[in-house]
Structure formats: C-alpha cells, structure tokens
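Reference record:
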Amino acid sequence: MKKFAEETKKKSIAERESDKAAILQDQILETVKRTMQRAKTYLKNGLDTTGINEDLLNIQYWHEVASDGILTHRQSLITYRDLTTTYNLLKVLESRALKNKLTLDNFQHRLSSFRFQLDSLTSDSAMFAFPDDSATLMKYLQKLIVVAREISPIDSTLKKAMSDVQTLQTQVNLQVYKIAGTQEEIESNQHTIYRSTFSRELSMSDDTVYQPFRETLRYSKAKSSLTLLFYTENTIGNICLLFVLMVLSAIYLVSLKRIYRQKNLLNKDFNGQLVLRYPVLSAIFIVLNVFQFILPAPPFLFSAIIWIIPALTLTVMFKGFIKGFWMQIWMALILLFLLACADNVLLQASRIERWGMLLLAAAGIVVGLRAIMKGRKEDLREQWIVYFIGLLAILELASVIANLCGRYNFAKTLLTSGYFNVIIAIMFLWTVRIINEGISLAAHVYTRQDKKLFFINFSRVGDRAPILFYCFMIAGWFILFGRNFYAFRLISGPVKDFLSQDRNVGDYTFSINTLLLFILIMGLSVMISKIVSYFASDRHLPASGQQAQKPKIGSWLLLIRISIISLGLFFAFAAAGIPMDKLAIVIGALSVGIGFGLQTVVNNLVSGLIIAFEKPVNVGDVVEIDNQSGTMKSIGFRSSVISTGDGADMVMPNGDLLNSHLINWTLGGSKRKMNLMLGIAYGTDLKKVQELLITIMQADERIVKYPAPAVIFQEFGDSAIDVKLFFWVRDMNDGFPVRSDLIVNIDQVFKASNISIPFPQQDIHIIREDTAEKKDNDKEQLP
C-alpha cells in the first residue's frame, strides 16, 4: 500500500506538471500568434521605403545644387552671400536627412523587437517539455508544425525588411555625414572671409573671377528659390499665425474707424489718425513689422518679402499725408531699397553687378546728402529719420571706397545693409507712431476700465510714444541690421549656446531658454485673459441718442479666463519640460494647506465657478443685495465688483454673493414696472381724468404698449380721490426719468383742462368759552 501510494503521488505530480506545461505552452503559442499578427500589420503599414528612396535622391540632388560653386565648380571668388544661402539650404537638408534617419532607426528598432520576441518565445524551455502520452505528443507536435509554418514567412519578411532598412540606414548616415562635412567647410570659408574683410579680393581689370551675368542669374535663382521653398514649408504654421493676426487687427481697426465715423470724429486730413486712413493696410503694416521676429532665422529672400510688403503699404499711407519733398525722398529710398534687395539676391560676382553696386551706392550718397542738406527737419513727423539717413550716406560712401579697393564682399555688405537699415528704421519708427495713435484713439472709445482687468493710463498717451516703445524698436532694428554681418553671428552664437545649455537641479534638467519660455507663456496667458476681460466688459461711448452696448459674454467671461490661464499653465509646463508627476506631488501638498487654512479662499473660488455655470447674475446686470443696489462690473476668480449708484465700487467675495438674497432686475428682461400716486379734487370728471392719463402715458415711447398702462382709482381720501398709475418702461434705467417726465406732463395737461390736484387741507372750528357758558345757562332756563 505504501508503494502504491508513492507511485500514485508521483503520477499525480507528473500529471500536474504535464498539465501546467501544456497550459504554459498554449499561452506561449497564443502569444506567438499575436506577435506575428502585430508584425504583419506593422510591416504592412510601417515604412514607405519608396518615399524615403525618393527623398534620398532629392536630398542628393539638392546637395549638389547647394555645393555648386563652392565644393564643385569652385569659383576663384566665393561670396559671403553665396556661403550664407548655401549654409541655410544645408541646414534644411540636414533636418530632412535627420528626420529620415530617425524614421529608419525607429523602424529598425521595432523590427528587432519583433524578432527578439519571436526568438525568445520559440526558444523558451517550456516549449520543449514534451508530454509522455503519445496521443497528446502527436497533437502538440502538430501545433508546433502549424506555428512553424506560420512563423517561417513572417521571419523571412522580417529579415528582408531589416536588411533593406539597414541598407537605407547606411545611405542616410552617409548623407548626414556628407552634409555635416559640407557645413563645416562652409563655416570655415565664412570665417576666412570674415578674417580677410579688409583684404583685396579682386580688381576691375581681372576678368577671371567674374561670372557671366546670365549665368549668375540662373545660379542665384536656383539656390534662392529652393531655400525660399524649404523655409516656407517648414514655417507654414508661423505664416498662418501672421495671417490670423493681420485679420484680427484689421477687424479691430475697421470697427474703430466705423465708431469714429458714426461720431463724426474723423479728421479730413487724418492728422493724428493715420492708422484709420487705411485700416487694413495699417493692420498689415503693424503685424508684419512687430511679429516678424517669430519667424526663426529666415533666408534673405523671405525677409525681403516681409520688408517690401509693409514698405509698399506705408507708401500708400504716406500719399497726400507727408510733405512733397520728404515724399520724394521716401520714394527714392524705396526704389533704391528694391534695387539693393535685387542685388543681394545675386550670389556670384559679375562685372555688371560691381558697376551696379558703385552706381547704387553713389545714388544713396546723393539722396542722403540731399535729404540732410535741403530737407526741412520741422516737416518730419519723426526726427530720428535724419540720423538713419545720415548713417545710410556714411555706409554707402564706405561701400564705394571698399568697392574701388577690391573688397567685394565688404562693399556689398555695406551697400545692402545701408539701405536695409534706413528702410527698416523708418518703418519701425512709424510702427511705433501708428501703434501709439491706435492707443490714443482707443482712449475715446474704451474709457471705463478696471485696474483688476487691463488698465491703460490714457491720460499719459499723447502725440509722443512712450520711450519703452522706442527701446523695443531699437533692439529689433539692431537685430535685423546685425544679421547682415558675420560678426553678429559670432556674438549671438555663444549667447544662444549659453541660453540653451542644459543645467541640472537634482533630477530635473532645464535651460535658461525653457525658463524664459515658461515665464513668457504664463505672462502672455495672463495678459490675454485680461485683454479679453477688458474688451468684453468695457463699453464704448454710445452714439448720440442710442443706448450703450451691453457686454454679451457676461459670466462666461470667468470661464474663458480660467480656460486661457489653464491652457497657458499646461503649455508652460510642457515647454519647460516639467514632469506632470512632479506637478501632481505639488498639488497634493497644497491640498493639505487648502484643507486647513484656505477654506474661505477655496469657497470663494468654487462659488465663482458656480456663478459662472449657473449664471444667477451677469456682468452688466442691475442687482440689489441687502438693500444696496448697483451694476455688476466684473466677476472675478475670488470676488466680484458691483458699481453702486453713488459711484463707489463694492468688492464682494463670491461666497457672500452666492449666499445673499440677491435681486436681479435684469435677469427677467430690461423692462421694469413703475407706479405713480396723485390726487384728484372732489367733483372732477373721473372718466375724463382717466382718458387724459392714459393718453399721456401712451404718448411716451419709453412706456411699453403691452402690458398696457393702467389708471386705478383707489379710494376717497381726506382731501382728494387717490389715483394710482401703473406702467412698464422698456429699459429699467428709464424708470425714474419717465416718472419725472410724467409728473411734468400731467401737471401741464391738468392745468390746461382746469383739473386741480388738491393739497391736503383740514377745517378747524374754534368754540369760545363765554359762548359755551351762555348756551349752558339758556338750557337751564328752559321750562
């Protein structure tokens, strides 16, 4: 029996182990099938090798175009403009090649993961635990054969795909290294030209360094157009943002002009109102000048387009606005600026271009000296323009000297930067002036402000723009002007590296750029929320005889502000790279403090959200709280502001506002029921009085026709018959003025109809004492 028990135990254990092995084998086989299915799907939708091959060929061709004239068909004179354009083109090609490299690396990693999973599963020791039972063994072997047949084509496909990807990876890596090597050579050539800035490069009699002008045009067109195409594709989001900003600015300026036209405030010559002369052009001019800095390192051709468009719009705005002499100077500068842009597009030196540079620089000297010597400075709206014109003349004179001395690259840099400097400076000066005009004009429209929302001290806004505007203008001009020189790049490069260098505080990695970006995003979100509140809650001055427009956003304004700030906070944390789990820890720690010490604050915040959702009160509503009436001025996060009738602003926490007995006169509509008491003398024809009173009330347009006004005779008073008038006014603000006017009209009509309104009177009978005694004696003598 003992032996039988031991054999039975061993058999039971063996069967259990066999069952466990069978279950594990089924699980492994099922996992293998799922992995194969995922691999099939990934291979089917994974990688567009045809597209990558085409992109490789395109990048190779574009690299040949970029290298032409520098690495291949090298010219004896390499221009700085050619090196800069080629460098920008190579940066784009490097970005595309790195993108392909990342795609291939990810695809290869995913394929290797599938191979590793399949190999691990199929080589698991549990797969080789064969059952002792022959029938069970045959079934298991059949499963293995089926799985092996299914794995075989997938495994072959994976191997082939990995081999193809490795081939593409090799090509892409070689392409990346080749582009990087070309960039290093371009940077070396740029540094060489910078060090030899004052060295002689060519002479007028040396024809070996010059290219045929037609060949120069073809060469420049090929590189410049390619660079422009790539940059436009990569910055399409920023370009769309510029377009949206222009549309929004145009809508606002058009509406501002409409208000001024309705109020007859527009000047015929638009003196001090240039921004309203052509509001759409003004919007284009302001946005392109102010927000062009959101475009990262644009190539010259793109920058030229961004400069030419506002320059032409400013020309249209100047027509008939500035003096004739200075308009001639401006037109001459615009023409020379366009020629300078065309010259800067040329990437190779030619004899025709060199003579053209001399003539163009000489023309700049003549225009600059004529403007300084003959122009009336007092006719200029912006006096600083004279200094920039003077700088133009100096730069063009230096360009002529450098050109005659054979310093081609230096002469071209001085020539183009001189014209760019004066046009950009004039546009920036007028941008500051036009923005200041817009703020000044808004002073007549948006005057009821709340310092808690967005406050501009319009009393300090005048013809002279704030000095801060000019500081921003000078900084922007310096950046755009400095881009023309390689030395600026040598200075800005280390600064960018310092700002973008990673720094560690514990486990958190950050850079100064990310911190500045965090502060910028949060500041912009708060400012945008306040600007939205400002324009939504303020009311512009009403036109004569019309009711002021009421805000329509109302209590939704709080939700909009919360949404804007919440999105800003989210984007700020994402831009700064702050992990969200760290934020959750901070919020959890704050919740303890909230539970103990900030209950009142949280109550007010939650009450603000309840007010925003339920809307028991809206911005602009006439309310009454504890016998204190006023108008809702704003609904904030923690408290709300009620403007009382005596001119004071009452700040009430949202919790108290929600818990108070609130009377909202506006919630049911703008109508309001009013009444008026008066007395009619006894003996008056009451039917006639009733008809007259009804006629008087119906004649006032401020009194609604339905419900109809009513005249009720209440009771016989001591000295008059009491009459009560009931009527509804269209707007609650008209209630007391209408009642006042009714009293005046009723008095006039009653006087004309000989109807008297008696004042309270009382008859007093005086009984003398002797008379009373005599009456008593007479009574006693009666029989």
